[in-house]
Structure formats: C-alpha cells, structure tokens
Amino acid sequence: MRHFLGREATRRATFSASKTAADQGRLTFVADRRRRAYGEAMSTTDSTHPGEPHPGEPHPDEPHPSTAHPDSSHPAEPHSAGMAQRLNWLRAGVLGANDGIVSTAAVVVGVAGATGETLPVFLAGTAALVGGAISMALGEYVSVSSQRDTERALIEKERRELRDDPDAEFVELVGLYRQQGLSEQTATAVATELTEKDALRAHLSVELNIDQDDVVSPWHAALASAVAFTVGALLPMATILLLPSPARIVATFIAVLFALAVTGYVAAWIGGARRARAVVRTVTGGAIALGATFLVGTLFGTGIA
C-alpha cells in the first residue's frame, strides 16, 4: 500500500511539474508577443524565404478573409464605419422635425383660437419657428459637443495607460474577454492578436465601446436639428395660414397628427423599436399639446372679447 501511494505521489508531482513548465512556456510566449505588439522590433519577413508570407498570413495575391465575401455579413445590421455619425444625424433630424411640428402647431393653434385674424397667427408662428430652430441647434451642439469631448478624453486616457503600463492593460483586456464568456486560453489568444493589430482600438472597443474613427460631430447634429425643425414647423404654418378661417384649425389638427405619425414611425424604425407603440405615443402627445393650447387660446380670446 505504501509502495502504491509513493508511486501515485511521484506521478502527481511529475504531472504538476510538467503542467507548470507548460504554463510558464505559454506565458513566456504570450509575453514575447505582447512586447512585440507594444512597439518592439518585429521582423515582417522570414530570413530563409524573404518573399513569402508568414504561416497563417494570407498570400498577397489572395483576398483577405474579411473581404473575400463582402455579402456574407447582414446588410441590415450597422457594421459599417461611420454608423454613429449617420444615426446621430438621423436622430437629431427626426427629433427636430417632431419638435418643430408640435411646438409651432401648438403656438399657431392657440393664437388662432384667440383671434380670427391672420397677422397675429403669422407673427406668432414665425417667432416660434425662428426661436425654436435656434434653440434646437444650440441644444444639440452643446449636448453632442459634451459627448465628443468625453469620448476624446477617454481615448487619450486609454492611450496614456497603454503607453505607461502595457502589461497591466493587457491583463485587463484578457479579463474583459473572460467576463464575456471566453476561456482563459481563448481570451489570451484573442487579446494577443488584437493587441498586435491595434492595441488602442481593441481596448476602446471592449472596455469603453468607442470607435476612435467614429466620434460624433456636434455640427452635423446641430445643422440637422435646425433644418428639420424648420421643415417641421412649416407644415402647421402653411396649413393654418393658407386655409380659410372656419376650417383651418381642424385641418391643422389633421395635418399635424398625420405628420407626427410619420415622425414617430421613422424614429421607431431608426431605433429598431415597435412602430405602432411609437406612433400612438407621438400622436397622443401632439393631440394633447394642440388641444391644451387651443383651449387656452379660446378662453383668453373669449375673455378679451
């Protein structure tokens, strides 16, 4: 029995020593690749075959796997670069149009409820259009500028951390991939390969969900919001000024609610939300705003008369 236990202990010790040596060898290999990824000299050609690619690398005449089949990705999903810019532009445009429709319509309907004259309605509507467009543009510019400044500060902070302590950042990257469900071996391999390609981009993507080439532009958002607000405000303005007095308020209600249904649908389509719920929510809010201002205008108009 003692002889058996002694052999078992010797076998386990030998296995443990072999496993430790293998782990140390793997860590040495990973550390060597990491050092090369963070700026040390790394040979790009093989000394015995200077014109041939390294093992695992595509031949120069062969298409890269990511571009060999451009139609293999899902075309409806936002994989292309610059998607944040386009979504930000669309979001600002839809929200600007929605605000232009509701706020201007509420003003002109309220004034029309107080008086049957056209000039006061025109002046009030024009003031609401100009003030609202400028306010929306400034609001979008300030908001998106703050977002852009924050993203730039985070990018610079991550770049500084990679320069000052690359080993700790590599361990952090491996840990982030482990949190996503990868095994230690797979997480280390993925982190090593991405670090060799672009360490900053890998950390920004996984750690902060930021693309350094896709930082939003406040000018685009401000311009889209101002133009969309103006276009949205022209609908109730034109409806209530061009139609005769008895029917202009009802027609403005109908035109505005229809336009709100369209903007609600488009906003839901951009965000991937349920269309029907968004349309009902937008139309209900617009109807409440129009009804409230018309009631106030009618009450004040009656009191003045």
Explained architecture:
The protein is an all-alpha fold and 305 residues long. 79% of the residues lie in helices and 0% in strands. α3 packs parallel to α9 (275-304), α4 (118-164) packs antiparallel against α7 (218-242) and α5 packs across α6. 27% of the residues are buried. Residues 2-11, 17-23, 25-30 and 37-81 have low confidence and may be disordered.
Which key features would you list for this structure?
305 residues, mainly alpha, 0% strand, elongated
Please work out how many helical segments DSSP would assign.
9
Q: How far apart, in Å, are the first and last alpha carbons?
A: 113 Å
What class do helices, strands and sheet pairing give? mainly alpha
The Rg value, from CA coordinates, equals 32 Å
Roughly what fraction of the amino acids lie in strands? under 5%
What's the main sheet like? none
Secondary structure layout plus pairing:
Elements: H1 2-37, H2 65-68, H3 83-114, H4 118-164, H5 166-179, H6 184-208, H7 218-242, H8 245-271, H9 275-304
Helix pairs in contact: 1-6, 3-4, 3-7, 3-8, 3-9, 4-5, 4-6, 4-7, 5-6, 7-8, 8-9
